[in-house]
Amino acid sequence: MTIKAYSVFDCSIIHFPKIHNRAGNITPLQNGIEVPFDVKRIYYLYDIPGGESRGAHAHRQLQQLIVAASGSFDVTIDDGTNKKTIHLNRPYYGLHLLPGMWRDLSNFSSGAICLVLASHEYDVHDYIRDYDQFKNFRGIHR
Ligand code: TYD
C-alpha cells in the first residue's frame, strides 16, 4: 500500500493498558507494542487558549499517536475524500494518525494537554500546509 492510499478509516483508536490502584493510574507505552511504530519524538501542546484550533496541515510520511493526556479535544481527520471527527477525552486512548491525513485539532477543554508520539524527528519538508497541495498529493484533482 502506498502512503497516499491510507484513508481516515485506517486511523484507529488504540486502547492502552491502565494499571490502576488506589493511589492513581499508570499507562505505559512501548515501541512496537502499544505504539504501532518506533517513537523518535514526543511533544505536547498545553496552555491552549479557549477557542483556539491547531493543526491545519498534513504530513507526507509521519505517523503519530495523539493522546489527550489531560482534558479533552476533537481531532478532525480528512483524507481528501472522507472526514471524521474523533473526540479524545481519556489518557488511555490514542488516535493513530497515518501519513497523508489533513488534521484539525479543536474544542480544547481548559487545561487540556495533547500528547503526541511521532515516528520521525521534526522535518519541515514533511509538512503540507496548503489544502490544494494536499489534494494534489492525494491524487485528487478538481
Ligand atoms: P505545528 O506542527 O504547525 O503545530 P500545530 O499543528 O500544533 O499547530 O508547529 C508549530 C511550530 O512549532 C512550527 O513553527 C514548528 C515548531 N515545531 C518544532 O520546532 N518542533 C516540533 O517537533 C513541532 C511539532 C513543532
Question: Which terms summarize this structure?
Answer:
142 residues; mainly beta; 5-stranded antiparallel beta sheet; 5% helix; binds thymidine-5'-diphosphate
How is this structure best summarized?
5% of the residues lie in helices and 40% in strands.
How are the elements arranged and paired?
Layout: E1 13-15, E2 19-21, E3 24-26, E4 41-45, E5 54-59, E6 64-70, E7 73-78, E8 83-88, E9 93-97, E10 102-106, E11 113-118, E12 127-128, H1 131-137
Antiparallel strand pairs: 1-9, 2-3, 4-11, 5-10, 5-12, 6-9, 6-11, 7-8, 7-10
The structure holds thymidine-5'-diphosphate.
Question: Could you characterize the architecture of this molecule?
Answer:
The protein has one helix at residues 131-137; strands spanning 13-15, 19-21, 24-26, 41-45, 54-59, 64-70, 73-78, 83-88, 93-97, 102-106, 113-118, 127-128. With 142 residues, the chain is mainly beta. It has a 5-stranded antiparallel beta sheet with strand order 1-9-6-11-4, with no helix packed on it. A hairpin with a 2-residue loop joins β2 (19-21) and β3. Thymidine-5'-diphosphate binds next to β4 and β5. Residues 41, 43, 45, 54-55, 122 line the site of thymidine-5'-diphosphate.
